[in-house]
Amino acid sequence: MGYINGTDRGQTKLVCYEDYIAKDNMVRVIDRFIDTCDLRQMGFTGTIPAETGRPAYPPAALTKLYVYGYENGIRSSRKLER
Question: CA-to-CA distance for 45 and 20, rounded, in angstroms?
Answer without folding.
Answer: 32
